[in-house]
Amino acid sequence: MIAFEKWHGLGNDFVVIDARDVPLPVDAPLARAVADRRTGVGCDQLILLERSSLADVRMRVFNADGSEVGACGNASRCVAAKLGRAAVIETGGGLLRTAVDGSDVTVDMGVPRFTWDRIPLAYPLDTERLPVAWDDLVDCAAVNVGNPHVVFFVPDVDAVDLARLGPLIERDPLFPERVNVNVASIEDGGLALRVWERGAGLTLACGTGACATAVAAIRRRLAASPVRVNLPGGELHVAWEAGGAVRMTGPATFVFAGRFDSAALAGGGAAGL
C-alpha cells in the first residue's frame, strides 16, 4: 500500500507521493493508473518526492498520460506548502526556490529562456512572434520556464476551441518535445488565461503557463509587472523584470491523504483508498 496526499493549486490537482525514505519506482503505466479519475486516485499530475543532494527535496512530475516533464509551478507551491517552510526544490527544469506566507506560496521559477533551441523548436525562428498559425491562432510567442510554452493573445479566450486546437499544436512537428498551449486576453489591467497542458489536456490552472504568458505580455508591453493572471481555477500573481527570474505567487491546498494498492492499479483493479 502506497501512502499519498492529494493537493491542488487553483484546481490543478496532484497526487503527491513522498518517497524520500522508501524509494518508489514510478513508470508511465503506474502514473497513468494513479491519474485515472475512474479507476485510480485521479489527478492532473503525479508528483514523486525523492532525496536530493542539491536541494531540500527532488520533485519529479508525471503527467496524466504517463510522460515525465521538467517542472510544474502549481505543484511546486503544493510541495512547499507540504514541507511547511521555505525550501529549494530540485526539478528537471532546474532549482526552484520557494517561500511560504500563510496560505500563499511564492516560487522563484528561474530566468525564462527565449532562444529557439532552448524552447526547443525544430528549427530557428523568431520566438517573440512565431510566423506560424493554426486557424485564427496566429503570432504566438514561445517561452521556456522549465517547460516549453506558446502564448497566443486573443480578443476572447472563451471563443477559442482549445479542446480541438490544443492537441494539434501540442504535437506539431515544430515542437520536438511537444508544447503547452496558452490563449490569453487583456482584461482590467491583468490577463485572462486558458491552458492546454502538454500531457494533461485542459486544466483549471497552470503555474508555468501563467508565468510564460505574463512574461510574453510584459515583453510585448501588453502588461506591466506584477501581472494578475486569472485562470478558470483562480488567480495567480507573476512578477518579472527583463533579465531576471520569474516569481509566481498563489495558493496551495491540501485535500486529503490516503493509500492505494499499487499491484491492484497495475493490474487494472480498483484502488484501495
TrEMBL record:
A Pfam family reported for this protein in Swiss-Prot or TrEMBL: DAP_epimerase
UniProt KW keywords: Amino-acid biosynthesis, Cytoplasm, Isomerase, Lysine biosynthesis
Catalytic reactions on record: (2S,6S)-2,6-diaminopimelate = meso-2,6-diaminopimelate
EC number(s) per entry: 5.1.1.7
Biological processes per GO annotation: lysine biosynthetic process via diaminopimelate
InterPro entries: DAP_epimerase_AS, DAP_epimerase_DapF
Xref: Gene3D superfamilies: Diaminopimelate Epimerase, Chain A, domain 1
Pathway: Amino-acid biosynthesis; L-lysine biosynthesis via DAP pathway; DL-2,6-diaminopimelate from LL-2,6-diaminopimelate: step 1/1
GO CC annotations, alphabetized: cytosol
Domain of life: Bacteria
Residues that, per the record, bind substrate: N12, Q45, N63, G73, N74, N147, N180, E197, R198, G207, T208
SUPFAM superfamilies per the UniProt record, alphabetical: Diaminopimelate epimerase-like
GO molecular function: diaminopimelate epimerase activity
Active site, UniProt feature: C72, C206
Subunit structure: Homodimer.
Biological function: Catalyzes the stereoinversion of LL-2,6-diaminopimelate (L,L-DAP) to meso-diaminopimelate (meso-DAP), a precursor of L-lysine and an essential component of the bacterial peptidoglycan.
Protein family (similarity comment): Belongs to the diaminopimelate epimerase family.
Record protein name field: Diaminopimelate epimerase
Protein's gene: dapF
